[in-house]
Amino acid sequence: MFTFLEGHATILALSVALLYSYYYFASKQNRERISLPPGPPTAPFIGNLLEFPKRRLHLKFSEWAKTYGDVFSLKVLNQTIIVLSSPTAMHKIIDVRSTSSSNRPKSIIADMITPNNMNMGTGRYANETWKSMRKASAQALSPEHIKKMGSYQFAEATQLMHDFLLSPESWFDHLRRYTTSFALGIIYGKRGPTLGSQDVMDFMDVHPQFINALEIGTLPPVDLFPILALVPEKWAKWKRTVAHIRTLHLTLFDRLLGNVEHRLVHGEEKGVLMEYAIHNAEKLGLASREHLLHLGGVLLEGSDTCSAALQNIMYALTLYPDVQSRVQQELDDVVGITRAPTFDDLPQLKYLLAFIDECNRFRPVGPLGLPHEMTKDEIVDGYLYPKGAVLFVNIWGMGRDERYFDQPEEFSPERFIRNPFGIKDGVIDDPARRPNMQFGGGKRVCPGIAFAKSSLELNVANLAWAFRFTPTIDGATGVELTPSLDNYSDGVTATPKPFPITIHLRYSSQKEIITRQMVEVQSILNRFDDSD
Known about the structure:
CATH architecture: Orthogonal Bundle
Number of domains: 1
Distance between the termini: 87 Å
Order of helices and strands: HHEEHHHHHHHHHHHHHHEEEEHHHEEEH
Keywords: Glycoprotein, Heme, Iron, Membrane, Metal-binding, Monooxygenase, Oxidoreductase, Transmembrane, Transmembrane helix
Mean pLDDT: 89
Number of strands: 9
Shape: globular
Strand order of the largest sheet: 1-2-6-3
Largest sheet: 4 strands, mixed
Low-confidence stretches: 1-32
Cofactor: heme
Strand content: 5-15%
CATH class: Mainly Alpha
Organism: Gymnopus androsaceus JB14
């Protein structure tokens, strides 16, 4: 028999259990009443797996957005995917609810390459490690610091002109050298003066391998089937590939950081990021050398999107000769032909800036950015954004929305002359649209906006001022070889693929101007020229 106290304890326990069950099932029913955003019909168990695009996701996502709206959802097995295709949708989830949407989706491969959440871009959690790296990078890539490094950037841009002058056939790689070298300089104080510089070669070798490894379908779907991670390396080629990429990363980043540490021992400072990070490691929360190693590495990785944008712009100049002529006429009117452009000229080059904006709209380098993941349930506009859902921000679709853009498949810089966002006449724009949306939002907004903006503007001004871009003629057939802006890689970064174009000086006098300017900036470049 129960004693009096035992009986009351049993009744209390049953009451608690019943109360818990009531709230659990009531919550579950309420949760189920709130549906996911609409989307394509799903099949049992597999969801939208069979129709989910294997490449160029942004094209299919933009097609679905026209049918299902600015926010739609998909199911791939047990994974919920939600696509945001308007500035307002992006703002409500990525900006306003950044605390709930700042994680990255789990990536076993990314974590194997850079473990312990040390990659600020791909690291899953917006935790203390991430915050400390973010704080340091915000200092290094701030508009104020980029402006402070303006003379060095001008010198690197001068060398880029000079490289185009000496070997125009290597233009594609010259652009990568420029962005890599400028990033090396402001991060480590050690530039890459030639395509044969060890740091430049190593970065140009490992970075495409890293991006390719993260691309959907390149390696086995370990995140969908985690049991694959248990296969021993000797039977899993993909594991050997991942280990090789990690080794290449660590070798490069260790050599670059070691160079800075060596200089500091000898009292040689250049006012660059890694010096600041080393001196202020405790204050910034950079608890170990590993933090410093990967802080510099991830910022260097980010430079490659800038070279991809410049490569797209060179193709656009070639493909649209009337646009090229108008850009160059403006340069002749504002700058003249007796000197090269400077930073002070840029605000007056209205058409050139509109041309850059149109290139970024027409072919965004990150058409979907990097995906986010929900850390808890959120209900927005009556739709459920469940914990664990993967979020894609459809930058490509936002720039092609026919509600706001007139003939969005046409290349027309004039749209940005008429409206700062390129919006067609007579419509009320999405109120959440803002500059630089291609750089993301919320806590994960890219810190490299000033780096990219100044690099694009100055170098496009320089190169369009100095050179004429035309399609190459096949020597054997006499056929014009026309590049395509659709010839880009799949994956997170839509990087254009190399294609020959012909580059000539616009005026013979410019050769002497570029050569003289190169001599004038050499002392600035020398300051960042450590021997390999």
